[in-house]
Design goal:
155 residues; alpha+beta; Thiol Ester Dehydrase, Chain A; six-stranded antiparallel beta sheet; 6 strands; 18% helix
């Protein structure tokens, strides 16, 4: 199987720093692949908080659900390093967008991983079910207040 290839955008909208704890490291002594998801999830929550939302369950009266995720590893990360995680919302559609990410060692700039997470908005349905709902216009307005060039969802 050929390796995944994922080009990065020219710029990012959001950046946060997260240290690698011993609990993030596997028996091989480097960042565990499951823990990469943990770091990206933490950065995603920080992204929504940066936009002024209390979390992923309260975004313009909606919640988000991660529909998919892909990652391409570029190098190992180790205990004690601090990851700079950069993010950019991209590829908007009627119900959500992709959140592109890059992890790099803060001290050296060495790239560790890149990828994207597909996010969709959902509203509570009957019982505990959730129903996919269109991307909230208020959310898009908050993004465009930081970067007016961000695209509008497709019809």
């Amino acid at each position: 199987m050929p390796r995944l290839q994922f080009p990065l955008p020219e710029r990012f909208l959001f950046s946060t720093d997260i240290p690698i704890y011993i609990s993030h490291v596997n028996q091989g002594g480097h960042l565990d692949n499951a823990q990469l998801l943990t770091l990206v999830s933490e950065a995603r929550v920080r992204f929504f908080r940066w936009l002024g939302y209390p979390g992923e369950l309260a975004i313009e009266g909606m919640s988000i659900v991660v529909g998919d995720m892909m990652a391409q590893y570029k190098s190992e990360a180790f205990y004690g390093e601090t990851m700079q995680i950069d993010m950019l919302p991209d590829d908007f559609n009627k119900y959500g967008f992709d959140l592109v990410f890059r992890l790099q060692d803060k001290a050296t700039g060495r790239e560790v991983a890149r990828g994207k997470t597909g996010v969709v908005f959902v509203a509570d349905g009957e019982g505990h079910s959730k129903k996919v709902t269109p991307l909230p216009t208020g959310f898009l307005a908050r993004l465009q207040a930081h970067d007016p060039s961000l695209g509008r969802p497709a019809a």
